[in-house]
Amino acid sequence: MPKKKKCPEFENHERWLVAFADMMTLLFALFVVLYAIAIVNTSKVKQVTESMQTAFGIKEEIPKEEGTIPRGPTATEGIFRYIKGNTSREQILQKIIRERAAIISAQAKAVEQKLSERLYGTKQFPDSAKKPVDRVIYVARDPEGIRITLLARILFAPGEYNLAPEASKLIQAVAEVLKGIGRVIRVEGHTDNIPYERNGMSNWELSTLRATSVTKFLLNTNLFPVGSVYPAGFAETRPLAENDSAENRALNRRVDLKILYDNPTDYIPPDEQLGNEEKSNKE
């Protein structure tokens, strides 16, 4: 007797609708929750803001900037613009800047006087030491710090980066003056614009090696904490004068001991360089 053939089972091709409906339900619930969270009670936010302003002594609102969020210097300018609009805060800020600048100026003058006393026995550089041909040390202020400039002709033989024997007395005097100054000192090497071609080196290597030699001497005096003195080479990129004469090129071949400021606002541009003839005439 032949077997009865089974009818093919019905296949439901729309089963995906069940899973789809479940997913849509869940998404709807999610969006409802997100919408509920997004609703802000503005009155309560305003009350909290006002209470915080009262607690911190800020009654007025800081003006909102249009456009993109300020970055870098623009953000800083926004802070100072806000302070400037408030007379009391502006006066306090200006007072702090003036006091810090006065301290830095006094410190620079004291460094100059101590160096002059150790090197020449007087509180001011003598006239003989101010002539461009004879002068080997300068003291000045710039936006980065108090700068003590030592001309290379007293420190190194031409084209060399090892300290000359006569350099020891000068650097030792500078080290004793700067002892306990409590600031970071960057020893900067500089050259003129004449290319240096020896042993495959350039002015970059020469300036860095000269700065390193002075740094090692300073650290070997054991007068400075570890990490408070470090070298840097700038080659011919930061000249003090145009490289258009032998005298100016000799001025640019130098090592600067930069006593760095704690804060850029410590700097207020001086009328003249400390220790030059004009300042001595005024005094």
Automatic annotation (TrEMBL):
Residues 263-283 are annotated as: Disordered. Keywords: Cell membrane, Membrane, Transmembrane, Transmembrane helix. Residues 144-263 form the OmpA-like domain. PROSITE patterns: OMPA_2 (PS51123). The chain crosses the membrane at residues 16-38. The keyword Transmembrane helix applies. PANTHER family: LIPOPROTEIN YIAD-RELATED, STATOR ELEMENT OF FLAGELLAR MOTOR COMPLEX. Belongs to the MotB family. It comes from Fluviispira multicolorata. The keyword Lipid biosynthesis does not apply. The lineage of its organism: Bacteria, Pseudomonadati, Bdellovibrionota, Oligoflexia, Silvanigrellales. InterPro entries: Bact_OuterMem_StrucFunc, MotB-like_N_dom, OmpA-like, OmpA-like_sf. It is found in: Cell membrane. GO terms for cellular component: plasma membrane. It comes from the Bacteria. It holds the Pfam family OmpA. It is a single-pass membrane protein. This is OmpA family protein.
